[in-house]
Design brief:
The chain has 240 residues and is an alpha+beta fold. Helices cover 45% and strands 16% of the residues. It has two domains: 2-127, no CATH class; 130-223, Gcn5-related N-acetyltransferase (GNAT) (Aminopeptidase). It is built from seven helices and eight strands, in the order ααααββαβββββαβα. The protein is elongated, with a radius of gyration of 26 Å. It starts with a helix and ends in a 17-residue tail after the last helix.
Length: 240
């Protein structure tokens, strides 16, 4: 999805082959034609980049609402589509880093193709997300053991990270931090991370550190369906 929305789009060059004619006159004509093609291609690149910027702007505006809307993937895609349609329905669009963009000069079909490809890429990333193996994150001579692991897409791009601590003698686990970038929040990945903790350490009772208000709601809901005990207490054991 990042490549679709942020990386430069491939240039579209004419399909037919071009041959350079012979002689000095032919060389000059070829050079002039090549310059014209480069100029035309540059304009095409700019137009394509402008459309890409509008699709990206619609995405970022939708993403900015996530703290209050908490949209799941399907609802997010629909909100993004609605916002993109609204932008394309205006005469001009202001995008950071660009001068005012005139929509009538652009290929709106390209915009919708980019949107569809990005939505599909986002869905594929969520569907095929995996959790990497846990790895120790502190020296083993501590009273408790610290671990961390990453939640990654199929292409190994990290979507989030989890840090936790366990005390085996007391049968206690403490979730220290679970973090996802705004792009991947409210996609079910937090639930995936907690289930991984339960699967890897099924004998533990789990605690969490203090949480922000919206995170407390998430943990309260998860406690109702978790396979392991998740307690609201804040004092796991004296070894932490």
């Amino acid at each position: 999805m990042v490549r679709i929305l942020w990386d430069p789009l491939p240039a579209t060059w004419p399909a037919e082959a071009r041959r350079r004619p012979g002689g000095l006159r032919g060389l000059i004509a070829w050079a002039q034609n090549a310059a014209a093609v480069r100029d035309d291609d540059m304009k095409r690149r700019v137009r394509r980049g402008a459309m890409q910027a509008i699709v990206r702007e619609a995405y970022q505006q939708t993403l900015a609402e996530q703290d209050s809307k908490h949209r799941g993937p399907a609802e997010f895609a629909q909100a993004w589509k609605t916002r993109l349609a609204s932008l394309l329905d205006t005469e001009t669009v202001e995008v950071s880093g660009w001068s005012e963009i005139t929509v009538a000069d652009l290929d709106t079909d390209l915009g919708w193709s980019l949107y569809a490809a990005a939505v599909n890429a986002r869905s594929e990333a969520i569907t095929h997300t995996i959790a990497r193996p846990s790895r120790p994150s502190l020296p083993p001579d501590a009273q408790t053991s610290f671990y961390e692991f990453s939640i990654v897409a199929a292409d190994e791009h990290a979507l989030g990270h989890v840090r936790y601590e366990i005390c085996e003698p007391c049968g206690v686990g403490l979730l220290l931090k679970i973090s996802f970038s705004p792009d991947w929040q409210f996609c079910g990945l937090g639930t995936l991370a907690l289930r991984q903790l339960e699967t890897r350490h099924p004998e533990l009772t789990w605690y969490t550190t203090g949480q922000y208000a919206h995170a407390k709601g998430f943990y309260q809901r998860y406690r109702q369906c978790g396979a392991s005990p998740w307690t609201e207490k804040q004092s796991p054991c004296p070894h932490f």
